[in-house]
Structures are given as structure tokens and as C-alpha cells.
Amino acid sequence: MTTILDAKSPEQQPRASAAIVTTAFERAAHARAPEQAVPETFREAVEWLRSEARQDAPTARPRRLPLDHIQVAPAAFQVRTGAASAGVTEPLHVQALQRALEAKPEGARVLDPVTVYAVGKRVFCIDGHHRLAAYRAAKAKGALPVEWFHGSLAEAIAEAAKRNQKVKLPMTQAERLEAAWRLVILGAHSKRKTAEASGVSERTVANMRSLYRQAVEQELKVGSYVETSRATQWDDDFEYTEAMREARVNRYVQGLVKQFGPRTPTHAEEFAEAVTKWGGGQFAEAMASWLAPADYGEFEDTDF
Question: Is the dihedral of CA 268, 269, 273, 274 positive or negative?
């Protein structure tokens, strides 16, 4: 079960100086953890975060956190393409937010709450990378409003993708595909939930699952969706073994059994025609080749 603990809106926040840290949690329990470089690829970043999560985390969840206590892991939580090290993809958007901050009175220079997620003793931004960058550009001091996401790491990554679909800064199709790809790699969500979180169709998710299985079977490096797609299509050094072929055949058989039952359809000819129409000419040729006798050629010159 996942929950979001909402911070009050900026208008509801107390007008006392943001520089005042009001809880012992902020002063000690979540003192800034030393910066560490988060791996740049998604799978490596997830493994790193999982190792960090093994550390005991404070249970308190204040409504404000000092700016330098919030870290970023774009490889895991920023699905937009072209993200810089701080997770920023639209510098002009950061500049607009910075101007909005600087136009406010000294004691009220805050934006909408940033969504954060605790990983061990560290706190990571899962939504609001551009707001964080604006705070830093404006040289904001003290604490800023946050809302906490509670759930598993896989759920936090799905939440980051879901929140980035908002109209505030729409995701491109390529970014939605990459978001879905990351959730497929995690393998923690159903097709429906993955599709809803990323904004792609369930059919696309199913195709991605097949691509991921293929990449794993071929022992390829699993990078972004585009990189992995290209690798599975153009890897000239890949050796397709008989075991891999047999595993693929068995998956097709399981799919047919699930759809039509364990027995051969009664109307075999009609079924064969339907399958041929579905598969097209290349499929029909492959079927004919497979069904033909292995030594058919030796009978060509035989006089019966």
C-alpha cells in the first residue's frame, strides 16, 4: 500500500523564516548524508538504492527539509530524456521558477512541495527536480516544503513516472516509453499498472516484456529502451543456441494452450488457414519448410 503525506500549500505554511528548522528530526536524524555518485544506468542505480535501503531510516517525516538534505537520483526517478546530473531537462522552466521565487517576499519564498522518498538514511526527490534546481539557483536558505511518498522502491519509481505525466511539463512519447521500460525491468507491476503509470498501452508493455526477456536470454547489456531495442536487432556476435530456440517455442506453445486449450482445434484446416492469414506469407513459408521431409531433395529424380 502506498501513501502520500501532503505538505500544506505554500499559502498555508507558517510565515516564520524558512531558515528555522523546527524538529529534532531535521537537526539530527536526517543530517545530510555524504554525497555519493549514483550510478548512471537504471538497473545499477536501482541496485545501489536497494543497498542503501538496508540502513535503518528515521521514522519521523517533517513537512519541511533543508535544501541540501534532499538528493537526486535521475537514473531512477527522472524519466525525462536529456536529464542533467541534477535531473533537470528544461533550463527555461527552472529560470521561470527562479523568477517566481525571487518575486516573493523574503519569508514566503517557497514553491509547491517537492515529493521526496526515504532510502535508508538518505532522502531523494522523486518529483520536483526543476523546483529543487530553482531553489538552488535562487540561493534559497533554510528548509522547503516537502511531501513524503511511502511505499516500496518499485512503487516510488512508478509514482515518479505517473507524476511526470501531469500537464505542468508534459512527457514526450519517448519519455513515456522509457518510463514504461524501467517499470518492465523492475518486474514488480502488472501490465495494467505499468501502462497507467507511464501512459503507454498494455500492448506496448507486453512487447517490452518480450524484448526484455530476449535481451536477458542473449545476455546483452540492458540499457535504455532504445539502446536495448537496437542491441537485440543488430548484435552480429550473438549466438542463438538450441536451448534458446526451444525455450521460445515452448512459450509460443504455452500461449496457444492458454488461448485455445490443450487439444488441437476440431476444424484443423480452418485453424491452419486462420493462423497462416495471421502470420502472413513469410510465416506460411516457414511452416512449409518445417513440415517438409528433411531429405525431400533426394526424391526429386526418382522414377516412380
Answer: negative
Contacts of 256 by beta carbon, 8 Å cutoff, 6+ apart: none
pLDDT band of 190, cuts 50, 70, 90: confident
Tally helices (H) and strands (E) across the chain.
Answer: 12, 6
114 has a pLDDT exceeding 70:
yes
Closest alpha carbon to 103 in 70, 138, 54: 138
Closest among 133, 132, 143, 182 to 160, alpha carbons compared? 182
Q: Comparing 47-61, 77-91, 109-123, which segment has the lowest mean pLDDT? A: 77-91
- Residue identified by cell 511511502 is 150
> Side chain identity at 215, as an amino acid letter?
A
Non-local CB neighbours of 132 within 8 Å, separated by 6+ positions: 67, 70, 72, 86, 87, 114, 125
Phi, psi of 58 (to 5 degrees): -60, 150
C-alpha cell belonging to residue 118: 526515504
Phi, psi of 61 (to 5 degrees): -135, 85
Give yes or no for a contact between 149 and 117, defined as CB atoms under 8 angstroms apart.
yes
The pTM for the full model equals 0.54
